[in-house]
Amino acid sequence: MPELPEVETVVRELDKKLRGKIIKHVDIRTPKVIGVGPASLGTKRKASPQKACEFQRQVLGHRVLSVKRRAKLLFFNLTGPQTILVHLKMTGQFIFEDKKQRQKTQGQYRVLNKLTAPLVALPSKHTHVVFEFTDQSRLYYNDVRKFGYLRLVQDADILKVKELKSYGPEPLGRTFTLAIFKSRSASRPKQSIKQFLMDNAVVVGIGNIYSDEILFQAGVAPVRKLADLQAQEWVKIFQAIAPVLKQGIKAKGSSVGDFIRTDGTWGQMGKFHFVYGRKNQPCKKCGTMIIATKLGGRTSCYCPKCQA
DNA sequence: TATATTGTTACACC
DNA sequence: TGGTGTAACAATAT
């Protein structure tokens, strides 16, 4: 389940590996994950062979200039007037391999990030797109749920992309301040702090895992309503955001769900989780059992003693 | 077989 | 009407 630290991990690795490479071939095995144009694909998407062809045609022969990130969206900036926007949603993943990498792994990967998942050769049944570059290296896009997408957008149309318009500030950016963060709560006093943190209009990139961890570090229960939070609690929550996300990036992402790095290895953040996914396990600080509750349809874990 | 999972959006409701 | 709250949706492993 990639959130900002996981997406950032993928972006840094891909930027290093793909920069300068020329796309020689694109194999689109599942056309429904492909979009063309600034309009969003929507949930009820159907396969469009025409779009897949157009995607292929416009991308072939172009060089990757850079790979960047905004919120949880990846940007593959290409030569020519196009950019590929990628959202991994729940289970999207990229695996990159060159000849050396292939020898190391013998072409075997776990497409699902579970120790019990079998090693498979790529492309697997969950591989939907394969990029091949002129130096023989390959980039595989896998997605078990097929919720993610690759969208080709003309650079001139980037500002027409709806999601980009509704996104709030980057949590690690200079424009994200306590005053701005707190001000967004005024119009929705009854919302829980957990849902507030996960709202991309408030601040981007924070999902279920990191919101739980941030609230643990802040000592605030996820069920607390915005209007009831004391000034000091706002400060604690705000000050917990950057360190928790930075630790996630440093650990190369979480090891939970289906997240794997671009070389098929796991991130280490899972080792540091204090509350996420630890229902009925003792709190690492006080030993109290971690409890789980549902907020806006999402499971939220917290320590009833450490978090008031 | 029912359930759990997420970001996004369509839509109901003040 | 505009902003907020909520439910639905996509697909599949377990």
What does this structure look like?
It is a single chain. The chain has helices at 4-18, 49-59, 99-105, 162-166, 178-183, 193-197, 208-218, 231-250; strands at 23-28, 34-36, 64-70, 73-78, 82-87, 92-97, 108-109, 120-121, 127-133, 138-143, 149-154, 291-295, 298-302. The longest helix has 20 residues, at 231-250. The mean pLDDT is 88. The chain starts with a helix and ends in a 6-residue tail after the last strand. It is globular and about 55 Å long. The protein has 308 residues and is α+β, with helices and mostly antiparallel strands. The strands form four sheets. The chain has a five-stranded mixed beta sheet with strand order 2-11-5-4-3, with helices on one face. Strands 1-9-10-6 form a four-stranded antiparallel beta sheet. The structure holds a DNA duplex (14 and 14 nucleotides).
- Please state roughly what percent of the residues sit in beta strands, choosing from under 5%, 5-15%, 15-25%, 25-35%, 35-45% or over 45%: 15-25%
Mean of the pLDDT scores?
88
Cα gyration radius (Å): 20 Å
- General form: globular
**What's the tally of helices?**
8
Q: For the terminal residues, how far apart are their CA atoms?
A: 27 Å
Helix content estimate: 25-40%
Main beta-sheet strand count, sense and barrel state: 5 strands, mixed
* Strand order, largest beta sheet: 2-11-5-4-3
The H/E string reads HEEHEEEEHEEEEEHHHHHEE
Strand tally: 13
Structural class by SSE content? alpha+beta
Poorly predicted ranges (pLDDT <50, ≥5 residues)? none
